Amino acid sequence: MKTKAVLLIFVSAFAAVLAGCTKEPPKCSDESTFALVRQIIAEQLGGREGVTDKELEENLKIELPRASAFDEKIKKFSCSAKLVAGGTIQLPITYESQLDDKDEHIVSVGGISRIDLYQLKIAVSNSINGAREEKRGELSQGHETERPQKNISAISGYWRGALEGDGEMSIKPAAGGFNVDLNVSSPSGCAGAIEGVGSVVNNVLTLIKKEGDQVCTVTIRFEGEAAEIDEDNCSYYHGAACGFSGVLNRKNQD
User: Fold this and answer.
1) Are residues 10 and 84 in the same domain?
2) CATH classification of the domain holding 188
3) Is 50 exceeded by the pLDDT of residue 89?
């Protein structure tokens, strides 16, 4: 059986020729279906040049697949699942699986917006680059656990200082990265808060949060006992008179 990945717009062109086909298409949970779903998403993220099959599989995981419908006439499964990107972003997706008259496996993917693609691209890129950097560190130092432990101790903790207002932040290790709890307040009464799991590459932590059509990106660069914070498009999470950008210093939590 040959395989071919197509975008949703091409599905209708194959439906008519599949009407008389008696072979069963690969199911929603088949690895061949997963592979084509990942291939389509990778292409929408800008291609997969230099990315191995293993890296793609580890950073675009498809969980809880199920068939929502089966069209007997054209032998097509309609599917839904949870996409986990880079260990940090979780997104519900839909996809379809069928065979054409030449036994080519046709897969289409839906349920991913342009904003979703932006988040997925950052999460996957950060995860792959971080894993490669850790591997290089392990090979050069000869210790498998030294670098991850160093990152945890350098990033975890309690931080306070001047943002666009008085700021404080706590960071703790979490599944898929680090949990960030960032707060800001000002004497004028402006206040803001954001919390979520961010991914780390070298000493830079990136936290991405989505609210409606707004994608907020918080970038935290760690240098010794200081954390420089930059935000982009995060006004939903704070008032107009304060913001998350600034510098915090590591402190002992009271």
Assistant:
1) yes
2) 2.40.128
3) yes
> Is 48 within a domain?
yes
Residue 75 tokens, joined: 């032998």
* Total domains present in the chain: 2
Asked if 26 and 86 sit in the same domain, the reply is yes
The rounded distance, in Å, linking the Cα atoms of 144 and 140 is: 10
Shared domain check, 149 and 117: no
pLDDT at 62 (0 to 100): 96
Separation CA 150–CA 144 (nearest Å) = 12
Neighbour-count burial of 140, counting CB atoms closer than 10 A to its CB (0-12 exposed, 13-18 middle, 19+ buried)? exposed
- Residue holding tokens 């069928």? 98
Tallying the residues shown for the chain, one arrives at 254
Q: Is 134 a member of any domain? A: no
Q: Give residue-wise pLDDT tens across range 13-65.
A: 233 233 344 467 899 999 999 999 999 999 888 887 788 989 999 999 999 99
Asked if residue 128 is part of any domain, the answer here is no
pTM above 0.70, yes or no: no
User: How much is the pLDDT for 22?
Assistant: 44
Q: pLDDT over 70 for what percent of the chain?
A: 84
